[in-house]
Amino acid sequence: MKYIKNKEDRNSILFYLANLISIFGTAIYTFAISLYTLKITGSSISFSTTLILSVLPIIILNPFVGVIVDKFNKKKLAVIANALNGIFLFTVYLISNWKGLNLGTIYLSTFVITSINIIFDISIDSAIPNIVSKDKVVNINSGNRIIDSISSVLGPVLGGVAFAAFNIETFILINSISFIVSAILDTLIDFKYNTENESEEMDSESITFGKLNYFKEIAEGLKYLISKRYIIRILSIFIIFNFFISFSVTIPIPIILNNILEIPAKSYGLIQGGIPVGMIIGAFVVKKIMAKYKLNNIFSAVGIVMSVNIILLSIPILFKTINNINVYIMYYLIIMIFMGICISLVDIPFSYTMQTNIEEEYRGRSISLTISIVKVVVPISYIISGILLQSIEPYIVVLFGGISVLIISIIFFKYAKRLYN
C-alpha cells in the first residue's frame, strides 16, 4: 500500500478490502454451516435455530458493545474482533478434526462468531468519520452497502460451492484464515486520520471492561440520542420503513410467489436477487441525490416510491389476468430492484446522519441502540404478519403495508416541510 500516497485513499482501499473479506467470510460461513446443520440433522428446527443464533446476539449484546466502543480504542477493538474470530474458528477446526463437528459446536460457533462480529461492526461504523473526511463518509457507506449486497447474493452461492467442494473442516480453516487477513488489513488503517481529539477513547489502562457501569452508560447514551430531535425524527421514519417492509414484503411475498403464483424455485431466487441488485444501484447514485435534496425530502419521496412498489406487489393477485409465468417473473424482478434502490436511499443517508451528527463519545452507543431497536421491531413485524396471514389473504397484508407507508410518508413530508418553514 506504500504506492498509494494519499492517506485517505489508502484508508478507503484498506477499509473495503478488510470489510470485503470479513463480510464475505461471515455470509459464506452462516450459509454453509446452516446447510451442514440441515444435512446432519434433517431438521428444519435445527436449521432455524442456527439462523436465530446468528441474530439473537445482535439484539442482546449491541447496547453493551456500544458502551465498550465509546470507551476504548476502536482500531484495537476492530483488529481484536477479527483476530478472535480467526482464532476461534481455527480452534473449531482443530476440535472438529479431533472429535467431529456436532450440533452443539455448531450452535456455539454461530453464537460466538456473531457476537464477536458485533464488536467489529459497531467499532467500524463508529470509526468511519475518523477514517475519511466528512465529504467521503457517504462514499464509504455506499461502498460498504455494495459489499453487503454483493455478499448477500454471492455468499449463498459461494457457500454452496464451498459446501460441495470441501469437507466442512477445510471450509472452517479457510474462513479462519480470511478473518486473520482482515485483522492484518485493519492494523494498516489510520483510525485517527480525521480526528480532532487525540484522546477521544479512554485508555484501557485506566479502565477495564469489568469496571464499566454498563446500564448507566447505556441510559446516558439513550438520553443523548433522545435529545437529538432531528435524529429521532429520522430514526422514527427509518424504523417504520423497516417494520412495514418486513411486514408486507419479507413474509407475504414468498407465499404469493411460491404458493399462489407457483413461481419456479430458480426464478424465485432470481426475483429475490433483485433487491441486492437494486441496493447496489442505489449505492452508486445516493451521493448525487443527497447533494441535491434535503434528507427529509429524500425520505419522504423514497417512502412514497416504496409504498407504490409495495402496492404493486399485490396487483397480480387481485386480477390474475395473465397466464404467462415469465411476465410475473419480470414484473416482480423489476419491483424488487426498485425496492432495493429505495432501501439504499434510506439506509445510506441514515448511516451518514448518525455518523456525522452524533458526537464521538456517544456514537457507538447511539448506533448500537438504533440497531437493537430495529432488530427488535423486525421480528415483531414478522410475528404480526404471520398471524394475519393465517386468516386473511396475503395481498391484503401487502396492500395494507403499502398504503400505511404511503400515508406515513405524506404525513412526514408535510411535517418536515412545516418544521423547515
From TrEMBL:
<dbReference type="Pfam" id="PF07690">
    <property type="entry name" value="MFS_1"/>
</dbReference>
<feature type="transmembrane region" description="Helical">
    <location>
        <begin position="298"/>
        <end position="319"/>
    </location>
</feature>
<feature type="transmembrane region" description="Helical">
    <location>
        <begin position="269"/>
        <end position="286"/>
    </location>
</feature>
<dbReference type="GO" id="GO:0005886">
    <property type="term" value="C:plasma membrane"/>
</dbReference>
<feature type="transmembrane region" description="Helical">
    <location>
        <begin position="367"/>
        <end position="389"/>
    </location>
</feature>
<keyword id="KW-0472">Membrane</keyword>
<keyword id="KW-0813">Transport</keyword>
<feature type="transmembrane region" description="Helical">
    <location>
        <begin position="44"/>
        <end position="65"/>
    </location>
</feature>
<keyword id="KW-1003">Cell membrane</keyword>
<keyword id="KW-0812">Transmembrane</keyword>
<dbReference type="InterPro" id="IPR011701">
    <property type="entry name" value="MFS"/>
</dbReference>
<feature type="transmembrane region" description="Helical">
    <location>
        <begin position="325"/>
        <end position="346"/>
    </location>
</feature>
<feature type="transmembrane region" description="Helical">
    <location>
        <begin position="77"/>
        <end position="95"/>
    </location>
</feature>
<dbReference type="InterPro" id="IPR036259">
    <property type="entry name" value="MFS_trans_sf"/>
</dbReference>
<feature type="transmembrane region" description="Helical">
    <location>
        <begin position="230"/>
        <end position="257"/>
    </location>
</feature>
<feature type="transmembrane region" description="Helical">
    <location>
        <begin position="12"/>
        <end position="38"/>
    </location>
</feature>
<keyword id="KW-1133">Transmembrane helix</keyword>
<feature type="transmembrane region" description="Helical">
    <location>
        <begin position="395"/>
        <end position="416"/>
    </location>
</feature>
<dbReference type="GO" id="GO:0022857">
    <property type="term" value="F:transmembrane transporter activity"/>
</dbReference>
<protein>
    <recommendedName>
        <fullName>Major facilitator superfamily (MFS) profile domain-containing protein</fullName>
    </recommendedName>
</protein>
<feature type="transmembrane region" description="Helical">
    <location>
        <begin position="172"/>
        <end position="189"/>
    </location>
</feature>
